[in-house]
């Protein structure tokens, strides 16, 4: 079940917008003048499918209509009376016809937590921020925060963490004991939508401590943990295969070899290529000097042994398959953009950077700390990291004004990069932009919002 069309009737009390999503290729580009509601449309879809219904309290509209590829439609309106003006109602339809029954969307707050309580907690935030500023300053790696801007920077970082906490507490009940229609709740669970905002960089809190990490360091650690998980899975497969190897070998030797020399040599070559790919993205030990040799016809006794070895090796490497494709694409995208530095990925360090122009006394490339990246480079890296590593098949990703963090030369390549990411992650993507450089030659993907003449 995927969204195929989004309509707003009288958004802000004025604008009618109809957006047919491009199902072929999975990319839709929304353009339009400031004030027409591009960002609000993305935020509304994100809020709806992530059960953040309080978002709709602050916007005015007559109807929001969502059409799915199943031809089902959801039509939303806000309450018309003063007593229910902040409430959201839904009517379900199919094939252009709406049911007569209308449902109130309940936000799922438990009796002991009211919106008033949450508002009070937000007011407490200022005191919380004041007390925490000094402690968090000690954990920030950017020396610029030593100057007078530290309070604003700390507020921004802590506000993000606090808001995440509030949202988690508010939303943790929304899918538990709420008496919303079953078809509505099941659809929300089935459709994963994420909004990626690219306007600013903030630190991320280490889940295992109170340390605020530089965002690149945070995602480096996250990627390293993904690699560690793949290594564990591979190790478990290896242990299972190794324990049964003697018996499997004896059984195969009794049965006799069915493969020809040519088939076996071809299988060896494919395994060799797979090992080199994993080595090139930092997932296994460099195999440059460990090419698998081809066997000759006078080595028939090796056919059975090597056949088992090849099959087992592919099974051991299988846990690396998905992450290796993602790392390869990630490196290609970043390394075609960053100047004078090269991104590398290793099991031990995660994401690292080396200079391509500066060497040390041993004539080796010097390391560049993540804090040595410009804000534009950090935004670029974080954006593509999220798209590649934090997305799952069938996710819908909403990207608001990516040009704010991209150099013009990078903007020209943006859509092609998104297409490559879709090819491995099977996403659908909606992009709101002002930039013709983002659109490039992809005008067929564009939908223009119209104002009132």
TrEMBL record:
Residues 24-453 form the AAA+ ATPase domain. Keywords: Coiled coil. InterPro entries: AAA+_ATPase, AAA_GajA/Old/RecF-like, Bact_Antivir_Def_Nuclease, P-loop_NTPase. Residues 254-281 form a coiled coil. The keyword Coiled coil applies. The keyword Coiled coil applies. This is AAA family ATPase. It comes from Buttiauxella gaviniae.
């Amino acid at each position: 079940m995927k969204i195929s069309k989004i309509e707003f009737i009288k958004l802000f009390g004025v604008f009618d917008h109809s957006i047919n999503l491009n199902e072929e290729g999975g990319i839709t580009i929304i353009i339009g003048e400031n004030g027409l509601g591009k960002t609000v449309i993305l935020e509304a879809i994100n809020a709806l499918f992530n059960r953040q219904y309080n978002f709709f309290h602050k916007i005015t509209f007559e109807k929001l209509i969502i059409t799915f590829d199943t031809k089902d439609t959801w039509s939303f309106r806000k309450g018309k009376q003063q007593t229910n003006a902040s409430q959201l109602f839904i009517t379900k339809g199919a094939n252009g016809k709406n049911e007569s029954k209308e449902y109130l969307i309940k936000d799922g707050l438990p009796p002991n937590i009211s919106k008033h309580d949450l508002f009070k907690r937000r007011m407490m935030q200022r005191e919380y921020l004041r007390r925490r500023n000094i402690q968090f300053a000690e954990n920030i790696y950017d020396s610029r925060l030593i100057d007078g801007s530290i309070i604003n920077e700390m507020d921004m970082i802590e506000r993000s963490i606090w808001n995440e906490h509030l949202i988690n507490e508010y939303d943790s009940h929304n899918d538990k004991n709420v008496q919303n229609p079953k078809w509505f709740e099941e659809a929300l669970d089935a459709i994963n939508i994420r909004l990626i905002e690219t306007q600013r960089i903030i630190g991320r809190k280490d889940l295992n401590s109170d340390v605020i990490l530089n965002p690149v360091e945070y995602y480096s650690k996250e990627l390293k943990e993904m690699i560690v998980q793949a290594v564990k899975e591979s190790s478990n497969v290896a242990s299972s295969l190794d324990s049964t190897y003697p018996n499997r070998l004896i059984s195969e030797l009794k049965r006799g070899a069915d493969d020809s020399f040519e088939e076996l040599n071809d299988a060896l070559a494919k395994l060799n290529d797979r090992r080199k790919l994993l080595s090139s993205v930092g997932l296994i030990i460099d195999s440059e000097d460990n090419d698998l040799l081809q066997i000759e016809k006078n080595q028939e006794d090796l056919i059975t042994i090597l056949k088992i070895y090849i099959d087992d090796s592919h099974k051991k490497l299988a846990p690396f398959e998905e992450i290796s494709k993602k790392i390869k694409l990630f490196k290609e995208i970043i390394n075609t953009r960053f100047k004078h530095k090269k991104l590398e990925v290793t099991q031990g360090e995660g994401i690292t950077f080396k200079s391509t122009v500066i060497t040390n006394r041993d004539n080796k490339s010097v390391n560049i700390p993540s804090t040595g990246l410009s804000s534009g480079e950090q935004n670029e890296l974080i954006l593509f990291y999220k798209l590649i590593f934090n997305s799952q098949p069938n996710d819908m990703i909403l990207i608001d004004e990516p040009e704010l963090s991209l150099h013009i030369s990078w903007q020209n390549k943006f859509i092609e990069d998104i297409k490559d990411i879709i090819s491995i992650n099977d996403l659908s993507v909606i992009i709101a932009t002002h930039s013709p450089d983002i659109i490039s030659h992809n005008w067929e993907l564009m939908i223009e919002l119209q104002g009132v003449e």
